[in-house]
Amino acid sequence: MMNSDFENRYFNEDCIAGCQKHIPDDSIDLIVTDPPYGIGGDTLHKHYNRDENHVIDGYVEIPMEEYGEFSQQWITQAERILKPGGSIYIVSGYTNLFYILEALRQTSLREMNHIIWKYNFGVYTKKKYVSSHYHILFYVKPDGPHTFNTYERYGAKEKDADGGSLNYQDREDVWIINREYKPGKKKNKNELPSELLKKIIRYSSNEGDTVCDLFLGSFSAVKVARGLNRNATGFEKSAEAYDYQIKQMEQLTPGYLMNNIREPEHSPPSNQGKPWTDEEFARLKERYTDLRSDSKTKKESIDILGEEFGRGYFGILNKINQIEG
Ligand SMILES: C[S@@+](CC[C@H](N)C(=O)[O-])C[C@H]1O[C@@H](n2cnc3c(N)ncnc32)[C@H](O)[C@@H]1O
């Protein structure tokens, strides 16, 4: 029988067998993961010309010829453990992207965005263009409302110096986020920047939700998740990487990132206190019906409508209660 005591526990196990053993169906709100690339990741330092003294030994790579089957198996587990409405973000290079997309196509998971992450320090080349992007595949499991906190980082009315909407820019599907340079600090090969992880976790989960990473590496995703008051779990096959990082997890204080995150600026709702016109009420009814049929929860719909109609939360709630009778 499955021991489902997995919250805030991390396993030094293969993620495919480990998921089957520890994680029940429909139990995870968000998966953020970065599988091995199948391109000789255990020798990546050769491409990056990197000082290996600070890179932790132990990175389990997948042979190229097994990549398709391997991707299919772990993505099947990911689909199983996500709650209906749960989200998954998979980081992939371009070499084996095909296998990941093909494995996703075999599931019920629904594509939301194919994000391009542009980073600095691309792999140096002379006779072709320098490669400096990754793909981030954002999918959602059907049959449940998915969390997307549209105004979590930028309010609807925040503008840059040229009058452009910061909310719109932050939600475009090309992200320019630099890798972190951590001189003298121990890290995993390919450690994901915390800026990138904070963005994903804040948009696609809420405090108290459970975030899972099937390929923990330096545990970067679960460190950020715990820092943002989410629960976390995950797997890492390499004993060296696991033993080093599990000690760091024990020292970590949940919520440690909460005082240091960008909060959106919300100017007072522009129509607050003004009487509702019949036309406005009819538009609200129509938009509320659309949002609910697009699987938004009542609360999510109220947040969105508050921004759109320039009204406070309770102003919208009162009207919706009238609509629902
Ligand atoms: C690209 S790295 C992840 C890096 C991580 N996102 C970070 O920011 O440090 C992939 C990791 O998956 C681990 N791994 C490879 N095969 C695995 C498997 N079957 N189950 C669990 N972990 C595995 C590797 O040892 C490696 O640490």
CATH class of the largest domain: Alpha Beta
User: Residue share in helices?
Assistant: 25-40%
Number of structural domains: 2
User: So what's the overall shape?
Assistant: globular
- End-to-end C-alpha gap: 46 Å
Structural class: alpha/beta
* DSSP, total strands: 8
Roughly how many Å is the radius of gyration? 22 Å
**Taking strands numbered 1, 2, ... along the chain, how are they ordered across the largest sheet?**
1-8-7-2-3-5-4-6
Regions with pLDDT < 50 over 5+ consecutive residues? 44-52
**Number of H- or I-type helical stretches:** 11
Average pLDDT: 90
Architecture of the largest domain in CATH?
3-Layer(aba) Sandwich
CATH H-level name of the largest domain... which superfamily? Vaccinia Virus protein VP39
Major β-sheet, in short?
8 strands, mixed
Descriptive overview:
- By secondary structure, this protein is of the alpha/beta class.
- It folds into 2 domains: about 10-260, Vaccinia Virus protein VP39 (Rossmann fold); about 280-325.
- The chain is about 35% helix and about 15% strand.
- It contains 11 helices and 8 strands.
- The chain has helices at about 15-20, 45-50, 65-80, 95-105, 165-170, 195-205, 220-225, 240-250, 280-295, 300-310, 315-325; strands at about 10, 30-35, 80-90, 110-125, 130-140, 175, 210-215, 230-235.
- It has an 8-stranded mixed sheet, sandwiched between helices.
- Strand 4 (about 110-125) and strand 5 (about 130-140) form a beta hairpin.
- Helix 3 (about 65-80) packs across helix 4 (about 95-105) and helix 6 (about 195-205) crosses helix 7 (about 220-225).
- It binds S-adenosylmethionine.
- S-adenosylmethionine (SAM) binds near residues 14, 15, 34, 36 and 192.
